Amino acid sequence: MPGWLSLPTLCHFLLPWAFTIFHKALGDPAPHRGPHYLLPPIHEVIHSRRGATATLPCVLGTPPPSYKVRWSKVEPGELRETLILITNGLHARGYGALGGRARMRKGHRLDASLVIAGVHLEDEGRYRCELINGLEDESVALTLRLEGVVFPYQPSRGRYQFNYYEAKQACEEQDGRLATYAQLYQAWTDGLDWCNAGWLLEGSVRYPVLTARAPCGGHGRPGIRSYGPRDRKRDRYDAFCFTSALAGEVFFVPGRLTLSEAHAACRRRGASVAKVGHLYAAWKFSGLDQCDGGWLADGSVRFPITSPRPRCGGLPDPGVRSFGFPQPQQAAYGTYCYSE
Questions:
Q1: Whether the predicted pLDDT of 27 surpasses 70
Q2: Kindly report the CA angle at 193 between 308 and 46, in degrees rounded to 5?
Q3: What is the 3-state secondary structure (H, E, C) of the chain?
Q4: Where does the signal peptide begin and end (predicted)?
Q5: What gap in Å lies between CA 181 and CA 198, rounded to an integer?
Q6: What are the CA-CA distances from residue 50 to residues 59, 61, 99, 153, 194 (Å)?
Q7: Per-residue CA distances from 81 to 94, 179, 227 (Å)
Q8: Over the stretch 184-241, which tens digit does the pLDDT of each residue have?
Q9: Between residues 35 and 47, the one the model is more confident about
């Protein structure tokens, strides 16, 4: 009869439900989910700063008879992991550049946590703690996230000059690294509004818009506009760089200096002309506020503003203002120096 279920069909739907109720009535435990030996981390994101010591927690609830713990870093935008350290609970061996700064915490006999000393910008990312016992391997994943600042960067030649590899190198030359999408998103929520598209570490090209307008992708909603993945060798855009806290200090030297005179002025003070990343970090983390344009190492002239005022760039929001790239022989600016 139409509308009625046949007996075989009815059994197909009801039997699994009946068996579930029967097993629950007998008090059978729920099927095990997740690590058996490794405890799930309380916090999956660990926050730190450049130069600090970061601890990535990995703890065994109970140790298997014999095992090894393998720590590795998942490289962004690449289908590979970089080995950092392997331990059997008694002895540990580090691998690669990061392995030289990594050690086991050994807070107790079940502690397999990884300690990274002198955190670098490139240390940010996703890590995996893998327990290998020969029967059933387990792992937990954690993310190390650095507090920092994202800044857009283009060379003196103008906009859209970098392929992916050139953008990566340019950020490193300015005391930074290519920003990740997560870092750009955080910068957007903090107020970054920029019309020029730039490379990100994952190989995509994007730009953040707070105030939607015609020259910046139209009058749609604010957000992170995307060009999607691009050809890393052929396509050319700007770069979004990321930097974190400084070990040293940025200070301003007044005067009407050429670029070469700026270098000499910093050397006389036991310092060097600051890089763009240095200035952004000093503005972000030290509150550097200076209403005077100063030379930087790349030949640009900029100044940092934490308290906006009418005669300091005319913009309502804090930020690092730019005069672009004047002629190096132009004796019109002071300089920002960086001392370790």
A1: no
A2: 95
A3: CCCCCCHHHHHHHHHHHHHHHHHHHCCCCCCCCCCCCECCCCCCEEEECCCCCEEECCEECCCCCCCEEEEEEECCCCCCEEEEEEECCCCEEECHHHHCCEEECCCCCCECCEEECCCCHHHCEEEEEEEECCCCCEEEEEEEEECEEEEEECCCCCCCCECHHHHHHHHHHCCCEECCHHHHHHHHHCCCCCCCCEECCCCEEEEEECCCEHHHCECCCCEEEEEEECCCCCCCEEEEEEEECCCCEEEEEEEEECHHHHHHHHHHCCCEECCHHHHHHHHHHHCCCCCCCEECCCCCEEEEECCCCCCCCCCCCCEEEECCCCCCCCCCEEEEEEEC
A4: 1-27
A5: 11
A6: 25, 31, 17, 21, 26
A7: 15, 19, 27
A8: 999 999 999 999 999 999 999 999 999 888 888 777 789 999 998 899 999 999 999 9
A9: 47
The Cα 170–Cα 300 span in angstroms is 14
Report the C-alpha gap between 110 and 317 in whole angstroms: 50
Residues 237-291: tens digit of each pLDDT? 999 999 999 989 999 999 999 999 999 999 999 999 999 999 999 999 999 999 9
State the pTM of this model: 0.82
pLDDT score for 265:
98
pLDDT at 104: 94
Quick one: tokens of 255?
A: 């005067």
